[in-house]
Amino acid sequence: MPRHLKKPRRLVADGRVYVWTLRHRHTVLDSGRSADCRQTLTLSPQPSGTGGSLRIVFASGPDRYVPGGAPLGSGDVGFIRGGSLNLHEPGAVRALLDAALARGWQPEERRAVELDGWPLLQAVAAERAGVRGAARPDAEQAAANRQD
Predict the structure, then answer these.
(1) Three-state DSSP state, 39
(2) Are 129 and 84 in contact, with CB atoms under 8 Å apart?
(3) Is the pTM of this model over 0.85?
(4) Are 37 and 26 in contact (CB under 8 A)?
(5) Which residue, of 45, 74, 90, 104, has the greatest Cβ tally within 10 A?
(6) For residues 47 and 103, what is the distance between their CA atoms, to the nearest angstrom?
(7) Half-sphere exposure of 16 toward its Cβ, with a 13 Å CA cutoff?
């Protein structure tokens, strides 16, 4: 049976438990046309009340995509010419959590925090590219650099 997309999911990172949800939202103009599209990933430390939630927001904008589904997958966010993530994948959520922690988010603080997701996505994409690049032998890396 498929998982319900709005049901919170559990993530354990460095011994701490979080639940996370993903929501997609549109702002609609009076004309009925969609003006703004955003994905909001919310991570909440567990048990409830032990810390404030982290909301990572990916708002549509120039050179970015935040689709609500077809032709791209639900949960996909990314740069037109750059990194991308599927926010339904636990590994992507963990990478964003790690990037937020590295930038100073403290899960034990009681207040909710909202962060722009685009700088975090850039950091995650750069780290993933570095990891892939580091795993290549020197000759293969040099060939890849010439193609870029």
Answers:
(1) strand
(2) no
(3) no
(4) yes
(5) 45
(6) 23
(7) 17
- Long-range own/partner contacts, residues 91-95 (CB < 8 A, 24 or more apart): 92/124, 93/11, 93/20, 93/41, 93/43, 94/11, 94/13, 95/124, 95/127, 95/128
8 Å CB contact between 115 and 55: yes
CA distances from 100 to 75, 76, 93, 119 (A): 19, 19, 11, 10
- pLDDT digits (tens), the chain, 148 positions: 455 666 899 999 999 999 999 998 877 666 666 567 899 999 999 998 899 999 999 999 999 988 765 666 678 899 999 999 999 999 999 999 999 999 999 999 999 999 999 999 999 998 888 776 554 444 444 444 444 4
Report the C-alpha gap between 100 and 106 in whole angstroms: 9
Tokens standing for residue 40: 């909001």
Which backbone phi and psi does 144 adopt, to 5 degrees? -65, -40
* Strand ranges across the sheet with 84-86: 64-65, 76-79, 84-86
